[in-house]
C-alpha cells in the first residue's frame, strides 16, 4: 500500500502556503499603490506569461528534486530548443514544435542515464552538461540570432489568448494541475518520494530507482524544451543567450516551494508560489528601474536564506 502524499488544509496552513501567498498579495498591493504601471493589464499579462514560461520549466525540475537530484541543464535545454524552433518556423511550424520536444526527450535521457544509470552526482553532472548544451546552442546558431515574421498558429502559443487568458498561462495551469495530481495521487508520485527518501529501500520495495530517475529527467528536459518553444513563439526570435541564467531562477523558485513543505523536496503548489513570487519581484525591480545588481543581490539573499532554513531543519532532525 503506497504512502499517502496528499496535503490537507490543516497541513497547508502549517507548511506556510497561506503565509507565502499572503506575502505575494501584500507585496503586489504595495507595488500597485506606489509603482506606476504595476497594476495594469499589460504588466499583469507580462507577469503571467513570464511566470508561465519559468513555471513550466520549474514544474519539471520539481519532479527531479523530489527524487533527491537536481537539474541545472534546464536553461541550456530551453535555449537550444528555442534556437532550433525559431530556425525552422518558416519552413514548418509543426516541426518547429515537434523537433525541440524530441531534442528535450533525447537530452533528458542523456541526463537520466548518466545520473540514474551510471550513478553520477547530479549536481556535478548537470553543471557540466549545462555548458555542453549551451555550447551546442552557440555552435548551432554560429553565435547569431534567428528571427521570423510568421504569424500563424505557432505564434499564438506565445502571444495568443483564450477568453482573455494568455495561452502560456493556460498551458501552465494545465501542467500544474496534471503534475499535482500525478505527484499526490498516482503510483508514480509515490515512487518519486520513495526514491527521494531512500533509493535503496525503494528498490527493495519493488521500485526501480534507475527508471524513475531517467523518466524524471526526460520530463524535466521536455518541460524546458516546451518552455523554449513558448518563449520563441512569444518573441519570434531566439539567440544562444536566450535562457542563460534561467536555471538559477528555476532552482530558487523550486527551493522556495520546498521550504514551505514538510520535507525539503519540492512540490507542485509550492513551486507555483515560488515562481509567482520570483517573477513579481523581478518585474517590480524592472518597473522601479533599480540597478540591475539589486536583482542578483535579492536572489542571492533568498538562496542564502533557503540554505540557512535547510541547515536549521537538518540540525533539528532527530536522526
Strand order of the largest sheet: 1-4
Calculate Rg over CA atoms.
Answer: 19 Å
| Helical residues, percent | over 70%
Number of domains: 1
Q: Class, according to the CATH hierarchy?
A: Mainly Alpha
Question: For this entry, what is the oligomeric state of its chains?
Answer: single chain
Uncertain parts: 1-15
How big a fraction of the residues is strand?
under 5%
The counted number of beta strands is 4
- The ordered string of helix (H) and strand (E) elements is HHHHHHEHEEHHHHEHHH
Report the end-to-end length measured between terminal Cα atoms: 25 Å
CATH fold annotation: ABC transporter involved in vitamin B12 uptake, BtuC
Query: What class, by secondary structure content?
Result: mainly alpha
The overall pLDDT, averaged over residues, is 87
Summarize the helices and strands and which ones pair or pack.
Elements: H1 9-15, H2 17-34, H3 41-66, H4 74-88, H5 93-117, H6 122-141, E1 146-147, H7 153-159, E2 161-162, E3 165-166, H8 167-185, H9 187-197, H10 199-204, H11 209-235, E4 237-238, H12 246-259, H13 268-287, H14 292-315
Antiparallel strand pairs: 1-4, 2-3
Gist of the model:
The protein has 319 residues and is mostly helical.
General description of the model:
- A hairpin with a 2-residue loop joins strand 2 (161-162) and strand 3 (165-166).
- With 319 residues, the chain is an all-alpha fold.
- Helix 3 packs across helix 12.
- It has a two-stranded antiparallel sheet. Strands 2-3 form a two-stranded antiparallel ribbon.
- It has one domain: ABC transporter involved in vitamin B12 uptake, BtuC.
- It has helices at residues 9-15, 17-34, 41-66, 74-88, 93-117, 122-141, 153-159, 167-185, 187-197, 199-204, 209-235, 246-259, 268-287, 292-315; strands at 146-147, 161-162, 165-166, 237-238.
